[in-house]
Structures are given as C-alpha cells and as structure tokens.
Structure of Alpha-1,3-glucosyltransferase:
Amino acid sequence: MPNPAGALLRAFDNPQWQWLLRYLVVGFAICIAASVGLGGYSGMGVPPMYGDFEAQRHWLEITQHLPPKQWYFYDLQWWGLDYPPLTAYHSWVLGKVGSWINPEWFALDSSRGYESAALKAFMRQTVLASEALTYLPAVFFYSLQARELFDLPVLDWALQLGTVLLQPTLLLVDNGHFQYNSVMLGLFVFSLYFLGSKHLVPASICFVSAMFFKQMALYYSPVIFFAILGCTTSIRPLNIKFGSLVAVGTTVIVTCLLLLCPFLQKDLLAQLVIRVFPFSRGLWEDKVASLWCTANTFIKFKVLFSDAQLRQFALIATLVGMSPSCIQAYRRPTKTVLPWCFASCSWAFFLFSFHVHEKNVLLPLMPTTLLFFTSDQTTRAMVAWINNVAYFSMWPLLKRDGLAWQYCIVVILWNYLFGLWKAQPTRIFHQLVVAGSYAAIGLVCITEKFGLMPMLDKYPDLWTVANITISFACFVYFWLWQTVAMLLTK
C-alpha cells in the first residue's frame, strides 16, 4: 500500500481492530462531503433565477402547499418540476421537516430566492442525510460483495471503499453545486448488488425506484433488461424460467403503479411525460463533452438538420454504441461482468444520446468507479485517469459556482491519499495517452488561469471548447478500451 491512506491504515493490521475500518472510512467520507458543503452553490446570490439550489428548494416548497395534480403544472417558468415522482415525494418529506423547523423557508411563492444561513445549513444536511440512507450503504454492501468475489485483503478493501466514496465529481456536484444525484446512484448500486446475487425482484424494485427518482437512470436500463433476460432464459439449450419472468414483470408493473398512483389520469400522465422528457430542449444543454456538442464546433448540426433528424441520428448512434454491452449482459450476467456492461452502456448514452447535460457524466462514472474493486493494475489506473478527466470536464460549471478552491483541494486530496497520480496502466500506449491528456489538461488550466495568450481573449468560449474537446477524446478512448475489456472479461 504505497500511499498515505495505506500507511495510515497499517495501524489496523491487527485483526481485532479491523472492524473499526468501515466506520473510519465512511465517517471520513461524510466529513469531506460536509466540508465541501461549506462553499458556494449553484446560483448563490445571483438573481433573478438563482440556480439549482433554488430549484431544489422550490420543489420542497410546492410539494408542501399544492396537491400532486398541480406539481407538474405550477408556474413552470420558475423552476418547474422536471423529475419523476420519487423526486417529488423525496422533496415532500424533506419539505415537511424543513417547514416544521421554519415555515418561512418554504412559504408558497414568498420564499423564492430565500438564502438564509440556516436554510443553507438545512439543505446541505438533507443532501448528507439522503446520501447516508441510500448511496453510502449501497456502496458499502457492494464493496463487501466485491471483497468476497476478488478475495481482497481487508486493508486493500478499505482503501478501495474510500476511493469510491470520495469520488470527486459526485462530491462536488451534490455537496457543492447542489443536487441529490447520490440517491439515484445509490438505488442503482443496490440494484447492481442484488442483480449480482441473482435476487431479481429486489433488483427490479431498486432500479425502477432509481428511474423514478431521476430519469437519467435510463442510461442503465438496456443492460439491466438484458441481464435479467439472461438470468431467466437461455438459447442453447432453450430454457425459460417463466416463474422468474412473471415475478420480475409483476414487480416492475406494481412498483411503477405505486409510484405513479397520484398521477393516474390521462392529462396528468401526459404532462408528467412532457416535463420529464424534454425533447424540445435539443441535443445538449450548456457545453458538454458529448459527440454532438464537441463536433458542433466544426459541423453545425442544428443548422444542417431538423430536431427530428437529430433525434434519429442520436438514437442510431446510441443503439450501436450500447449493443456490445447488452449482448454481453445477456451472455454473462455475472458479478464480474455486469459492472463493465453498465459502464460501457452508460458511456454510450452519455457520448451519443439526445439532450445530455454535463452533470450526466455521473452516470457512466458510477459503474466505472466501482471497477476500483479489483486487484488489476491497468483497470485501477484507467479508472483513476477517467475520473480525473471527468472532474476536469466539470470545471466550467464548478468555477461558475464559486467552488474553485474546493475543486482543487478535493482532487489533490483524492489522488494524493490513494496514490492515484502514480497509477499507471501496464501498456506503453495507454501510458502515453494518459500522460498526453494530463499534459493537455495542464496546459489549458495554466493558460486560462494566467492569461498567457491575451490575443485569444476575444474568444471567451475557447477554454470551454478546449475543455470539452479534450474530455470527449479521453471519454471515447476510455469507452473503447473499457468495451474491449468487458468483452474479454470472464
């Protein structure tokens, strides 16, 4: 364990003290998340619309004062609710608690733009509590499964658990920028955990819940569909487990109906679908390292093609990109292979699908980061590298939120503690790609920070374009490497 965290954990070489490791690692992760929350957030002090903090606060507000039939209709120009019902129920619970503490925080309409210190503290704590109830236990239980699968020593397992829990991008987006992505990701990891154990009914419940919390969980849906199909059917010899298929199908239908219960009217369902799937918003939102946004620098897609054509192009590209992972998930729905399949499929969605936001990189990063639970040097090195690249891709957003210091400290701490700066893949070509990308990232950061090229000041978006171009190239390279590795995994 040639890294600072490993040196610290040597104090637990004695087996009688190793039971403390889980509490130490999880507690440290919570402390770091809480520390990030001391900084800025999306839209802080920036009227008239503020940002994601106000959006989340507003949803706690409207779910308190309005019946469910109005949630997806009420004043859509002011952060109209655009996530599925489980997010709304989550907001309702948190809003009840907050309104009990201070009704002014979530008073209908009059609380818009409210930013008191007490409200900020409460909202930050709701993120930590949501993580503690979903994401942290999900990753912990998955790590125990991986520890048994790969026969990991206890200290190595604790290090890898810390590496995953302190993933910088999720830390900064949820606890800095301000969102509740950890709930969706936690439900997904629970689903993966149950799927690996062939417990298909709880896996289905968790995955449907993840989709009904945030619709972006659909990035994972093709793989879980084919994995469940692979667990319940076979072609050679022909065999179909009808009982298991019926149980899963019934579970999915009942879970969906329960979550949709207040909205089971034609007009309510139609409005919910319109809000949750915003096809009118275009191929991407803001600057994002997807194929369409990156290539748009050279090919003006929105000028050359209609929205309908672009949706077709995105659909075809996504179907082609995700097909290897679906085939492999059906052929080998095992604990070892499934994380690779989910990673490959969700990277294909992020790179090629319609209406991608920069924060959507969290979806492919989750199963990718779970690949840290291995003893393979190249896998760990490549996963560390792509996490750093994804973190770099979030710089324009996090800088805008006033999180520059947190951004720098967290990534340095993560790489230093776990020795990830020194992690190198075994093949020379991979090493050259990793080193070259880090050099390009460093050049962009230094040039932007110190204004070393004043003649380029007339191009204010240049550094953002450079950011997404470098990130996209790295994402594609990693996706190709990871897809090949998935197909070779036994």
Summary: The chain has two domains: 4-36+135-179+277-488, 40-133.
